[in-house]
Amino acid sequence: xxxxxxxPRKIEFIDLKAQQLHIRARIDAAIARVLDxxxxxxxxxxxxxxxxxxxxxxxxxxxxxxxGTDALLIAMMAKGIxxxxxxxxxxxxxxxxxxxxxxxxxxxxxxxxxxxxxxxxPAGIDAGIAAAGRLGLEPKAIIAVxxxxxxxxxxxxxxxxxxxxxxxxxxxxxxxxxxYKGRPVGSLGHVTATSFFPAxxxxxxxxxxxxxxxxxxxxxxxxxxxxxxxxxxKYDIVRVGVNGRLDTIQAAILLEKLEIFGEECNxxxxxxxxxxxxxxxxxxxxxCPEGYQSVWAQYTLRIKNRDAVxxxxxxxxxxxxxxxxxPIHEQPAYCNYPVxxxxxxxxxxxxxxxxxxxxxxxxxxxxxxxxxxxxxxxx
Length: 379
Ligand SMILES: Cc1ncc(COP(=O)(O)O)c(C=O)c1O
Hints:
The protein folds into 2 domains: 16-256, Aspartate Aminotransferase, domain 2, CATH 3.40.640.10; 261-378, Aspartate Aminotransferase, domain 1, CATH 3.90.1150.10. The radius of gyration is 21 Å and the shape is globular. Helix content is 40%, strand content 14%. It is of the alpha/beta class. Helix 1 runs antiparallel to helix 8 and helix 2 runs parallel beside helix 8 (248-279). Strand 6 and strand 7 form a beta hairpin. It binds pyridoxal-5'-phosphate (PLP). The site of pyridoxal-5'-phosphate has 15 residues, from helix 3 and helix 4.
């Protein structure tokens, strides 16, 4: 028998299979319990998950819902956002952020971001308010996005929001599990929306999301909107709502995933630390400011010759992704919406420079080492 070459393990960008292998028996048992009791909609696992999420987020209310997009939508519906209103959001984010604003007939206004954190630049918010004024729109809310798992600068944003009398929503689709100045994500905005899309740090096996708030009145309205605007009972309809419930099976899966989530967050932090140690000085590595704890949904570099480097990495077996290749205001669907006065030069530049490396809790040391070496050689 000839000698067998030892092939390096295939590197996955996000390895959901490795995680599943680890907890498969528990997931199977959790799904079987739902099949046994048969309460597929709003079953006991949904209430149990909401309790666990609210404890973890340090928020009085956690409301499970069908997706991170629905979470944003329900929060804004509850605040009566609609035509004639402006909602500020970063120009560098996933499409769901502006989509929910536009769906409600309100006008998204795109604000620039910081190049060190990728998050909305508090110093640019006044320019967004000025754009709303010029267009005769009433500024109603600001959606701060915790891009790549790092919380936005909530203290600064809250002060500005207060000064303008507007409402602060945290789009924490990518950051559940992170914290800011000792406070967990979920407790940072007046209302916080998160996503359990499979690739998120805490993901289910389909679509899912949750909304957090400490405001009792707002929580009641959001629960009603989640179920078609129901009042005291199912056929008492007191407002226009949506079908925005989380499936019981997804709640059961999330309960099992929560058991290992803390450990997974630690591992993500260890991967990020290893990357930064190996890549500092070779490329611009992502920052996590003092007092912030990221959950590293993505580990995102900035590289001038990004596309060439990406191609070299691909050939060397290191999968990468670009989040996001265009700022929102350059997307055909959003190019006619306003941008804050002065434009969004940082978001526009970042879209040309960002590159995200493989990131998941099951990356082994040899793979991390190989990724670091391949990136160093490629740049
Ligand atoms: C920043 C941001 N907002 C909102 C969403 C929407 O979440 P979902 O895909 O669960 O609807 C996502 C995720 O996809 C996201 O990354």
